[in-house]
Amino acid sequence: MESIFHEKQEGSLCAQHCLNNLLQGEYFSPVELSSIAHQLDEEERMRMAEGGVTSEDYRTFLQQPSGNMDDSGFFSIQVISNALKVWGLELILFNSPEYQRLRIDPINERSFICNYKEHWFTVRKLGKQWFNLNSLLTGPELISDTYLALFLAQLQQEGYSIFVVKGDLPDCEADQLLQMVRVQQMHRPKLIGEELAQLKEQRVQKTDLEHVLEANDGSGTLDADEEDLQRALALSRQEIDLEDEEADLRRAIQLSMQGTSRNICQDSPQTSGTHLTSEELRKRREAYFEKQQQQQQQQDPPGHPCEKPNTSSGALDSDLGDAMSEEDMLQAAVTMSLETVRSNFKTEGKK
């Protein structure tokens, strides 16, 4: 494949690429093809002038642009045909009635020139194999003998004009080499636009990958540190949550105790929502324990020794004050008040 000459598309110079790929060398340049186009324009002008330089047709012809070339680099079939005459080559329309009557098998030809919408390209036999030398491809495309007829028929169906190149083509290195060996093509060449799009996509993907790699360079430690930080924050939040739960629990217990105390005090006629002073509390404790002592003496059988306190009420208050907490003292006072209320209810019920 490396020995095959293949010009790739530049601008709109497909006619130049078509001719050079057919002849397998840099035989024509845009300047030379432009010279042929100007010569054709001059010949056409002279023929139009034969009808009179003052005629309407001649003035109209002069106002029209050239039909053999334009500023983009397009050249007409007349330019291509005249360029091939220098080499003794002739173009015949492949699907013309004259050629079809010859019933020549395409495989027996040597080359074809194809055109569609002002694009020209060559299909040529090199050695014993056919190649599509379209300048829009990234390289020569191998065409099998069995596929050649189908390939040309497909081009005709798509609207291509196909010309058979008649005459002896100049010798070339690729033709001589491929006479001795046959080539195989594993992958068909792509269109230049497809290759450029693929290369662009690959560059974009490579750039994105490089950005990702650059972003990750040296960030392994940062990621580990971030994970440790997140773990520490999670543990800290758990500890804070536990502390908050414990604080809420303590507050709930305290409120519950306060609520119970308030409810009990509200149920008791003695307190009626007021706080007991320490003196009142001492007096009620003293009365409570004296009443307990009297009840104990009444329950004990006769003759049973009864222990009597060896301390005064003041000493008892002192000892109890030390042994009992404030909550115990409050509970004892509430209990005593409740018993007093019950006793009053019993007395009123007997009446």
UniProtKB/TrEMBL annotation:
Location of the region described as Disordered in the Swiss-Prot/TrEMBL record: 288-329
EC number: 3.4.19.12
Active site per the UniProt annotation: C14, C14 (nucleophile), H119, H119 (proton acceptor), N134
UniProt main location, coarse: nucleus
Catalytic function, reaction form: Thiol-dependent hydrolysis of ester, thioester, amide, peptide and isopeptide bonds formed by the C-terminal Gly of ubiquitin (a 76-residue protein attached to proteins as an intracellular targeting signal)
Biological process annotations from GO: actin cytoskeleton organization; cellular response to amino acid starvation; cellular response to heat; cellular response to misfolded protein; cytoplasmic translation; exploration behavior; intermediate filament cytoskeleton organization; microtubule cytoskeleton organization
Signal peptide from the UniProt entry: none
Domain Josephin positions: 1-180
Name of a matching Pfam family: UIM
Keywords: Hydrolase, Nucleus, Protease, Repeat, Thiol protease, Transcription, Transcription regulation, Ubl conjugation pathway
Name of the protein in question: ubiquitinyl hydrolase 1
